[in-house]
Automatic annotation (TrEMBL):
The keyword Cell inner membrane does not apply. GO terms for molecular function: methyltransferase cap1 activity; methyltransferase cap2 activity. Keywords: Methyltransferase, S-adenosyl-L-methionine, Transferase. One of its GO terms (biological process) is methylation. This is Cap-specific mRNA (nucleoside-2'-O-)-methyltransferase 2.
Length: 1265
């Protein structure tokens, strides 16, 4: 066979249909239409059922039970041609896939088809056909050269000419597995070209590109059409869109063919149903048919319930070698008048892709359809779908002949490509270039491709068209498709194995720990060394082999997923990476700054404050006037540039506000709010608001780490603040809990310029950078700006309320609202049993003596209210009666929300820890705190976020009610990877003039926590948002009420879900907690509006999450390498291994065996001091004094030290003397005048009034002085 795509294959004349003009085709002559109704092949039931007997039809109700339950069978007739193809494929296995793609692109004669169509087929406004991609050209050829839609369109046109039908003439199509949308775009273009006046109506279904539980190896990232037409896409009860489940197929049938709402008619059955499903099989291309056939079968079953009589079906399949493909063709032949298999020109000749055509649907018996749908969930490669006895020999022979025909074509093309890969001349390349031009022109002419009017497009939006044409290389909002693993076949196989193994281990851990992920614990240095020397945690032991090569051609025992991805480009700049690892702030401005707000800020900056003047003056003396002037000008330029919202932000803001004003979310069905089942954290694999590759890499690192040891400043803050966090009263010499330090950073960030760079101290840098802007008198600013504050928290400890802990120390008044989760309520009951006082006004006042007034403490139990089915009006009344009525004015000027108190840990471990502490207290005479454990987080990065979903909605609703117009808001969240959380944050950003996602440098990267900062609340927009939040709460409450009334609700569930032996366990039982006798869902609301209309704004969250994930990847990698180095150093110091340690539970911190035992030693061998010393040296463990020094220097450099602790604290005293002396020298000398007293500064200010200072801020200071 020559290289021409138009060459007719030999032996094709006896299987060609005259009305099918595609060159590569096979039309079946044998029909199985009569099998359902008559004949002895499918035996009838004896006696027949009453229904079939009344209809006087053949009863097959018992025979169909054999569907999917009979043994499979082989195809010895195809062995020769299949072996020939496999020999050629084996040669390709040793060629890197990117290199092979470059070769095939160079020799592809179809390369210019799409560019030529874009150039020559344009409408009056100069636009090319919509969504013109490879799938568009393939299906357009099928539409133009086969009778799948021509007869129906001709019938509709005839009715239009005869005027026999007053109803609109509508052509309906349904497209399964449709993303990115090439088939529906091609259908629309063909109908508008060949049948003008016929209305085209369509629906589609596909794997949801936004569903977090979809695998990145299967779901397509292309969402260009999906996000602009989401109302037309049918999902599934779990939101995944996975059609390979019987439940989801029946849901699809119900949504399209039954009337769900009285005011909305059903879509109905379709004239054309297509299925273009597939997924990446680069890890095993030889078994593509076996891997994809379950999906193809599910598509066929769905089609049989969606296509109307005399309609058509198109299904993509592969190879047709197996008995499953024979069953697919047999089912089509039993239900359609004609069956054909075609391979369009634009379908690459080197792949095994073919399209099955079913022409003229004649119907299907209900018992057979029920049996086919039941076999979807129990599909097995070893079992035949249709029993071999039901298939006539003549039809089976045609199936073998068809498979051989297309396999022969594929083998010949692969052989030709290999020959050209080995050697190709310049003359042959020149001939191919000429052939490309000819092929493109012939393709347009033979398929009669013409332009359509702009208003006839699927999305007649000029902005959409401009964006598509500007980024025509991708159909994804990421401006680039997901990265596929390259390399040779062995690399792709190994990546697949590592990835799937990680997902299986995640599920196993979840089940082993009773419906919860493993606790990733931060231990003290001493406890960490002990745990490391006794560690038998299996994933950590495997991680030690990652840097070791396999011997004798074997692969290493473990491979890091990061080795397969190219995600290290941004870490080359070490200085930038170090600075980025300390803090992350991403601002979003949706409204221009109002003149009144600008005036207030200028008044605050120019306020005649002597302390601020002296601080500013000394900072200038330290830095130098010229350098300070340049920095201030740069900040002013950044302020002016970032304070004006971008055009994209304005467009999104206006669209959102218009939808809120019209109340579009109240419509049913609604694409704004759609209740779904709660996510199970171990199933989270992708996020529309983060890089999936980074999520996978970080997830593997968290899986490999047995525990954490303190090595960073954030760890030291947690360690140093732990004593005060466990106490009930803040001592004068103690460092406040780390959450209080985090809050101080967040409050300072609220005063920063949006978008301005943050000057962050780097502990590893010995060189001092340029001095930052002049320090403000933050206590004075806070007292003036936030006279009344409200803190809404899910924590129930006195010192776990950072807002009242910090701001009351500086003179602000505060009101505390508690939304305690179930665990905190149980802990309070236990505390009362142990004679501990609950959190009351008196307890909080005693915790911070000599502080600002505490206006009150109230508890609003939103979870119990939700369990009772209370609506948002109940919460509103509670807030007004208990809190708002006791606040002066219109509300609080600052509201702080904190949902991070929600933690689900194993009850067995908690009970055991409490029992051990109780025993230690009784034996030792005094309570001994649990040693070693500092803090713990979930190994699954999205678990805490998912668990806190309901409280997040409730706290945002309460916070907006309590916040006064123009006030600021702080919201501490676990993370923002799911659509639920990201949607709420995007909606919340509409309520403020500017918003920021911020991770302070004091927050540990591995925790994933951060802040949403909202500045200057807007009253009108907040009212609209509150209405939507109330509707969302009502939907969740109604869903819970319906589940509560269902019989399945009577089954008890464990906290966090019940462990299951099957991976297909229902996720509806996950994340329930018990309030009284009721189980309450933690969430389950998906806000689709954030995906459809907030695409531009979502990049705000995406950039923040990607930056945070990069920091986690870098830090967790360093921690894992440090633990591995310490383990090896300890092993070398300990001596040779004598025996293997016994296994330990995977969930134990560090997987430690009995105390006193050493890994690699016999059961009675003690831990040697040399091993401890070697491990400590490798981990660079610091003493408490050294940790305090680093904490003090860090807080001092950030301007936080004086705000957090008293000046007589040990942290002030442990500042390095050399640094103190250096600072004194810098501050005390300016020119030849010593600056060592207030009098000298005042004299200098009055003696030098003519200093050349051009910065506006400097002039204001001189005027104030």
């Amino acid at each position: 066979m020559d290289g021409s795509p138009w060459g007719a294959p030999p032996g094709a004349t006896d299987c060609v249909a005259e009305d099918i003009e595609i060159e590569k085709q096979y039309a079946f002559s044998t029909s199985l239409l009569s099998l359902q109704l008559e004949g002895p092949i499918i035996p009838g039931s004896d006696p027949p059922c009453a229904h079939c007997k009344s209809k006087r039809i053949k009863c097959i109700c018992e025979s169909v039970q054999l569907v999917g339950n009979t043994p499979g069978y082989g195809a010895p007739e195809l062995e020769e041609v299949v072996q020939r193809l496999e020999e050629r494929r084996n040669f390709l296995s040793f060629i890197p896939i990117d290199e092979w793609k470059r070769h095939t692109a160079k020799t592809d004669v179809l390369k210019k088809v799409i560019p030529t169509i874009k150039q020559k087929v344009r409408d009056r406004e100069g636009h090319a056909p919509e969504l013109l991609i490879n799938s568009w050209t393939k299906f357009y050829e099928i539409l133009a050269k086969t009778p799948i839609v021509k007869p129906r369109l001709q019938h509709l046109l005839h009715q239009q000419q005869q005027q026999q039908q007053k109803q609109p003439r509508v052509f309906k199509s349904i497209h399964l597995c449709e993303c990115p949308g090439g088939f529906v775009a091609a259908t629309n273009h063909y109908v508008k070209t060949e049948a003008r006046g016929v209305f085209f109506s369509w629906r589609a279904a596909s794997l949801n590109p936004y569903f977090e539980g979809c695998s990145p190896l299967e779901v397509l990232d292309d969402d260009e059409l999906y996000r602009h037409s989401e109302r037309r896409w049918i999902s599934s009860p779990d939101g995944s869109g996975n059609i390979c489940k019987k439940e989801n197929i029946e849901f699809l049938w119900k949504q399209l063919t039954r009337q769900a709402h009285p005011s909305v008619p059903p879509f109905g059955l379709a004239d054309l149903v297509t299925a273009d499903g597939s997924f990446d099989v680069q890890h095993d291309p030889a078994k593509q048919e076996e891997l994809v056939v379950p999906l193809v079968y599910a598509e066929l079953v769905a089609i049989l319930g969606l296509v109307q009589l005399h309609g058509s079906a198109v299904i993509k399949a592969y190879s047709l070698h197996s008995h499953h493909s024979v069953s697919l063709l047999a089912i089509l032949s039993m239900c359609f008048e004609r069956v054909a298999v075609v391979k369009p020109l634009m379908s690459r000749s080197g792949n095994s892709e073919v399209y099955l055509l079913g022409l003229g649907f004649r119907g299907i018996r209900s018992p057979l359809l029920r049996a086919l749908s039941s076999a979807v969930d129990s599909f097995s490669l070893e079992k035949a779908i249709i029993p071999r006895e039901w298939i006539p020999d003549a039809f089976l022979a045609e199936c073998r002949k068809c498979a051989e025909f297309f396999t022969q074509l594929q083998a010949e093309h692969v052989e030709l490509s290999i020959e050209r890969y080995k050697s190709i001349t310049s003359h042959e390349l020149w001939q191919l270039s000429l052939q490309r031009e000819q092929t493109a022109a012939e393709f347009i002419e033979s398929n009669h491709i013409k332009p359509i009017r702009f208003e006839d497009r699927l999305v007649p939006d000029k902005d959409f068209v401009k964006e598509w044409e500007a980024n025509g290389y991708t159909n994804s909002t990421r401006k680039g498709s997901r990265e596929r693993v390259q390399g040779v076949l062995a690399d792709r196989i190994r990546f697949r194995e590592v990835y799937m193994q990680l997902q299986q281990q995640r599920e196993q851990k979840w089940q082993q720990h009773g419906g919860c992920s493993r606790a990733l614990c931060l231990l003290t240095s001493q406890a960490g060394i002990d745990a490391l020397l006794r560690c038998t945690y299996t994933p950590f032991e495997e991680a030690k082999t990652m840097s070791e090569d396999g011997g004798d051609g074997e692969l290493p025992g473990a491979i890091a997923i990061s080795e397969f991805y190219s995600i290290d480009g941004k870490e080359d700049n070490q200085e930038a990476a170090t600075q980025e690892a300390e803090a992350t702030a991403t601002w979003l401005c949706l409204y221009p700054e109002e003149p009144q707000q600008q005036q207030q800020q200028q008044q605050q900056q120019s306020a005649p404050d002597v302390a601020s003047f002296l601080t500013t003056f000394t900072a200038r003396a330290r830095q130098g006037w010229s350098e300070q002037q340049q920095q201030q000008q740069q900040q002013q330029q950044q302020h002016r540039a970032t304070w004006v919202p971008s055009a994209a932000a304005v467009a999104w803001r206006d669209e959102m506000l218009q939808g809120l004003q019209r109340g579009e979310y109240n419509a049913r069905p609604s694409c704004w709010l759609y209740p779904l089942r709660p996510l199970v954290p171990y199933t989270v694999q992708i996020s529309r608001f983060a890089d999936d590759r980074l999520m996978t890499v970080v997830g593997q690192l968290r899986h490999l780490l047995p525990f954490l040891v303190p090595i960073s400043i954030a760890d030291f803050l947690l360690l140093e603040g732990r004593p005060s966090a466990l106490g009930e009263k803040l001592g004068g010499q103690e460092l406040p809990p780390s959450s209080s330090i985090d809050l101080l950073f967040a409050l300072k960030q609220l005063e920063a310029t949006p978008g301005g760079p943050s000057v962050v101290f780097s502990p590893g840098s010995s060189r001092r950078g340029p001095a930052g802007p002049p320090e403000k008198d933050f206590p004075a600013i806070w007292r003036k700006k936030y006279p009344v504050c409200v803190e809404i928290s899910s924590w129930g400890a006195p010192l776990a309320l950072p807002l009242q802990l910090m701001l009351r120390r500086h003179g602000c008044s505060c009101f505390v609202v508690l939304n305690l989760p179930l665990q905190q309520q149980q802990q309070q009951q236990q505390q009362q049993e142990h004679r501990k006082q609950p959190v009351t006004r008196e307890v909080l006042e005693a915790a911070i003596p000599k502080a600002g007034p505490l206006l009150g403490v109230q508890e609003i139990d939103v979870l119990s209210a939700f369990a009772r089915g209370e609506t948002a009006d109940y919460i509103k009344r509670q807030v007004q009666e208990k809190v708002l009525s006791k606040l002066p004015g219109d509300g609080a000027s600052l509201v702080s929300l904190d949902i991070t108190g929600v933690q689900h840990w194993r009850r067995e471990e908690t009970a055991q820890m409490e029992e051990e502490e109780k025993n230690n207290f009784e034996k030792g005479g005094k309570k001994r705190r649990q040693r070693g454990l500092v803090v713990q987080v979930h190994e699954e990065i999205a678990q805490a976020e998912i668990e806190a979903g309901l409280l997040l909605l409730a706290q945002i609703f309460q916070g907006l009610l309590l916040l006064a117009p123009g006030g600021d808001l702080l919201l501490r969240v676990h993370s923002s990877y799911t659509r639920y959380t990201a949607s709420l944050l995007l909606l919340l950003s509409l309520c403020f003039g500017s918003s920021c996602l911020y991770r302070p440098p004091s927050v540990a990267c591995w925790s994933g926590e951060g802040f949403f900062l909202g500045r200057s609340k807007r009253k009108n927009e907040t009212g609209l948002v509150l209405q939507l939040l109330g509707t969302a709460w009502g939907l969740l409450a109604a869903k819970h009420k319906a589940e509560k009334a269902s019989p399945a609700h009577a089954k008890p569930h464990r906290l966090g879900g019940e462990p299951s032996s099957s991976s297909s366990s229902s996720s509806s039982n996950q994340f329930r907690f018990k309030v009284g006798a009721d189980f309450v869902d933690w969430g389950g609301l998906t806000a689709h509006w954030a995906l459809q209309q907030c695409i531009k704004a979502k990049l705000w969250i995406l950039s923040y999450n990607d930056s945070l994930l990069r920091q986690q990847k870098k830090e967790l990698t360093e921690r894992l390498e440090a633990l591995i180095a310490a383990s090896r150093a300890a092993a070398a110091a300990q001596g040779p291994r004598v025996g293997a340690p016994a296994g330990a539970p995977a969930g134990a911190p560090g997987g430690a065996p009995a105390p006193g035992k050493c890994p690699g030693s016999t059961s009675g061998a003690p831990l040697l001091p040399k091993a401890r010393a070697a491990a400590a040296a490798a981990l660079r463990c610091l003493s408490q004094q050294d940790r305090r020094k680093q904490v003090a220097v860090f807080l001092k450099s950030q301007g936080i030290l004086d705000l957090a602790v008293r000046k007589d604290s040990p942290y002030h005293q442990c500042l390095p003397s050399s640094e103190t002396k250096e600072e004194i020298n810098e501050i005390s000398e300016w020119g030849s005048i010593p600056l060592d007293s207030v009098d000298t500064l005042a004299l200098l200010a009055g003696a030098l009034p003519s200093l050349s200072v051009q910065a506006a801020a400097a002039e204001e200071i001189w005027m104030s002085a």
